[in-house]
Amino acid sequence: MVKNLHKGALVSPADDGRFLWSERSGLMTDSEGLIVDVGDADALKAAFPEAHVIDHGVGIMMPGFIDAHVHFPQYLMAGSHGESLLAWLERYTFPAEIECADTQYAQALAVQFLDQLVHQGTTAAFIFGVSYYGAMEALIRQLKSRRMAAVTGNVWMDRHGPEQLLKSATESMDISERLIKQLEGDVCFGILPRFVPTCSSDALTRCGDLLSQYPNARLQSHLGETQAEVSWVKELHPDAEDYTAVYERSGLLGPRTSFAHGIYLTEREWRALAGTETQLVHCPTANLFLGSGLFNYRRAKDAGVQVGLGTDVGAGTSLCMLETLKACYQVQRLQGGSLSVEELVSMATLGSAQVLGMEDRIGSLEVGKRADFNVLRPAAGSWLAQRWARCESLEERVFASMILGGANDIAETWISGHQVSVSSER
Ligand code: GUN
Ligand code: ZN
To answer: How much is the pTM?
Structure first.
């Protein structure tokens, strides 16, 4: 059985809460694409003399990035100008999603989208889909052929949107059940009610039924992204205590549920999320782009709510998780807070893995997990390469890479032990 011994610096969160920093480490992977050992490179070479050595030099091996919230049908409408959330949905987003009714178009879009994710060093994602069966089937086929770990599914919406995009709860249920049958291994099913304004109470309740029926499925939606959205939910559900309560009474909260955003939440809502182990996904570039508001990471931590990191493309302005981490840091600084390098790296890897429910398989470079990793090494002669030369620690190099770097500084991406992308700049 051929083993690869990758040598380089290593940075990773660990399942036991520690954080691994090593200037020189070995990462041993097997032909199944799993990590079988991590430790001193020379000792590993002595123990496995037959291993094929791949020396990454000054490159930093870190877990592949995990995008915990991204919309596949919005890939080609990102960067659409000048609207806040609800107008942006009507004017740009829904029309872009309607294009996916054409399965051939959706198939080509899935290829472009996943190629680009991998190029950015993202090895797994929670992918918000679209309401059409054919488009989702095409995306799932692509995910499987690339051995990517992912959660995805059809989006449910049965009101307050264009006719072409709406499906009755019965139709969405039927599409979901057909898709669930195609999922296996590390591609898991996502139950995706778009958000309260576009879902009837019947649709939400049936999403809850599906969640209890399929113990491996995850549920994701949007919550408290803008004030106008919160007011609309209040008008639609005057009897509900708050926005979260609408999801709650349909049985949608729990450890297999995550919500993108969570900027505008009351004390009661924080308690409800924490008490049910419901998770949040912070999407800083989307929040800045739409002018939605500033997510309070410390509030989430104080409440005991787990947070992953998402790009939320097409509201997000980059598929690159390094750039998303920069925005994440800046959003906390704007509120007088900060985030350590360990907190930042953890949010984009193990924290997001928890949102996908795959923390046993991905999110850290530890024995038994999938060999999904990036090698961070700035392009020769680049500003970041010059900055690295002045850094005094691994931690400094990683932080500078988040603030000054981007996809071109990810020299290699490995998924399940196979190299899948080399930066086009090399
Ligand atoms: N809320 C409901 N749908 C969407 C969407 O597609 N993007 C964002 N950012 N928020 C939403
Ligand atoms: Zn979103």
So the answer is: 0.98
